[in-house]
Structure formats: structure tokens, C-alpha cells
Amino acid sequence: FDVRADTTRTPAMKTGLVPAIGNLLACAALVAGDVVVTIATWASQTFADAVDWLCGSGCKTRRHPGKWHGQRYSVEPVYRAEKDGYVDLDIGAMRKKSPFPIKPEELIAKTKKVLGSEFGTAKGVDASEFLAEDFQFVAPIVGPLDREEFLRAFGSFKLKEAIPDLMNNSYMYVDPLEPNRVWMISRATGTHTGPLNFGGMSIKGEGAHVRMPPIAESMLFDASGRVYTLTVGYCVDKRIGDTEGLGGVLGILKAIGRPLPFPEAQRLYNPSLRFQGFERFSKAIECMGVDPITRQPLNGHAK
User: Fold this and answer.
1) Rounded to an integer, what distance in angstroms lies between the CA atom of residue 292 and that of residue 47?
2) Distance between CA atoms of 102 and 109, rounded to whole angstroms?
3) What is the pLDDT of residues 34-44, one digit of tens each?
4) Which of 38, 98, 229, 293 is the most exposed place for a label (fewest CB within 10 A)?
């Protein structure tokens, strides 16, 4: 019996007193569960914080992630004349005002070289040629990792050996508001036919297809042309692909049927009990013929 959301069908909305009572009962159960979880979470985190304070532990964890780099370059927006009710950015004018010394075309070329070098982990490549000393890797869950941590982790996966036909399928553009950042939207695809190294294990390739959702990634370059921040794994449409919205290595593990055993590695978004409780309360109001947002009668219930 699978209690996860069924995304293959959309049941018809039922109205009336009985569905409203059902939603309220479910709401009460979910909120009660949330109270228990909240108390347990607070107690666990408080204890962990006390241990960290006493032992000096916890550095570079979710509780103490360290400091991210701030924005280094920016350009004030310049606008074109309004057309069809929309005011567009004047990209050409903004490029002329850019304080960053490297031109957009050069940044795109540098980005492709970094990708071609497998982020500095390819055989015979000197990572310091592409990644700055203060490099940070930042993903939705993991990070910031410094250069050595990133190279050690990413280099161990051997993605090219695990998925020889891996294609990034990305397009790139330079951010007009942050002229040292190259944005990429990728839809990576491939077939897991070789060994994938993860966590000291070697996961045998069995021909599983990997189809990632559209993922937003970016590289931030310093004035010398090296990357000081790499952001990856930010899904922009979880409906696409076979990873339930996960990106990066977590998405690959999900696609090949070997997801890690915690909620963040199962799917992009796992709604909390509290959210589900509020959702059920809203549905109870809908069942009585009222829009919970506008507080107006729904169609068919207007007097």
C-alpha cells in the first residue's frame, strides 16, 4: 500500500458536509502529528547544538553551513519603452555599463571549457586553471563546499565512466544584472551502463535511463576568468524527467533506482504535516462552497 501522492489521476472535487468533516478530521490528525514532530525536532536540534558547543563539532553542516560569497558585480537595470504592457530590459545598454572586464562571449567560452574539463576533475587537468582558490560549490542541499572538498567528491563519482553517453543539453546566457554570472538551463540525459561510485560503493550499471528535469545552474567568474562559485541542482519544472525534481547526483541516484534514504533525496519537495493540515482545512472550506482565499462563494454556490 503506497500512501504517496497519486499523480496519475486527478479526482473530482466533492462538496458537502461529509467531505468537509473528513477534511477537518484529517487536518486535526496532521496538525497533531506536526506538534509531535516539531517538539521532537526542537529537542533533537537543541541537543545537537549543545553537543557542538561543548565539542566544537558541527562545522560545515546544515546547522552551521559557513558563509556564502556575496555578490561581487552588478549592473543597474536599463529599460526599453513599454510595449504591449511589458517593460523589457535594454540588454545592449546594460552591457555597456558593465564593470566586469570579461565580455559575455568570452565568459560563455570559458564556461564550456570548465564543463569540458569536468569541473577540473578530468584526467591530466589542473583544476586551479579553472577554479579559484576561494571556490565554493552550492546546491539546494549540499554546500558550500570549498575547492578541495568539491574536487574530492565530484572526482570520485566518475560520471563519464558510469554514464558514457551523458549529455548536458544546456543553453547558456550571461546575466545582464550580474555580468560575471553565466546561467545554464540543462536537461541532462544518459544511460547508466558503467560503475557509479558513491559513498564507498560501486553501483553497477544496468542500463537505467537518466532523464533529468530542467535544471538551473550557474558559474560566477572572478576578474581573472576563474570560477569562484558553482551553483547546480535547482529544478525549474519537477514534472519533467524521472527524478521527481531532483538534480545533480541525487537526481542520478533517483533515476537509477538507488535514492539515498532521507526525504531530501526522494523528491524535490516533501510537504510538511503542517502544510498538509492547512491544505485540508482549506479544502474543508471549499467543500462548503466558499473560496478559502477570496472568501467568496464558489461557482454554483452563489446566491
Assistant:
1) 39
2) 11
3) 999 999 999 99
4) 293
